[in-house]
Amino acid sequence: MSDDEMISLERFSLQKVWILNVQTPDVALPELISAIECGIELRQGNYSRCMYVRRDGLTRFKNENGAHGGAEDVVRQVTSAEIIITLPYEPQRLTAALHCIAEAHVHEEPTIHISEGFSFLAGPDADRTNQNRYWNRADSATIHGEALIP
């Protein structure tokens, strides 16, 4: 068994991955998503450009000495989002992703949390007749999602 495929069963596997949680102000979200999609290969099985976006969070901070805006006596707050992506557990992929995100991010000190984890992959032999799969449901169009221009 290889390091990147820790558990493999007939219908699924768990693969070791890097998990990146990136926080950004809401107003900068579209540009950061675009930069990530153009600069980082994000695959999950037979799907690409895979990420999770969580919205309506709040980022709070206080500028200290050395900050671009200078030291301030106030705490600032901005409506923010979080982008969560997974990458293969390869140091060079993580390094390339961090360069891409840091270059495109609006903050002087981007908030990026990195952890090791496992990603679940159903594999090519997923049960196509399973009544719970979106394509077998009456609300399949809603579950499959809105089409965006790439």
Which descriptors would you attach to this protein?
about 20% helix, about 35% strand, two-stranded antiparallel ribbon, five-stranded antiparallel beta sheet, alpha+beta, Alpha-Beta Plaits, about 150 residues, 3 helices
Describe the protein in words.
This protein is an alpha+beta fold and 150 residues long. It contains 3 helices and 7 strands; from the N terminus they run E-E-H-E-E-E-E-H-E-H. It has one domain: Alpha-Beta Plaits (2-Layer Sandwich), CATH 3.30.70. Strands 1, 2, 5, 6 and 7 form a 5-stranded antiparallel beta sheet that branches. The protein has a two-stranded antiparallel ribbon with strand order 3-4. Helix 1 packs antiparallel against helix 2. The longest helix has 14 residues. It is elongated and about 60 Å long. The chain starts with a strand and ends in a 6-residue tail after the last helix. The mean pLDDT is 90.
Which spans have pLDDT < 50 for at least 5 consecutive residues?
none
What is the succession of H and E elements?
A: EEHEEEEHEH
The CATH class turns out to be Alpha Beta
Alpha-beta content class: alpha+beta
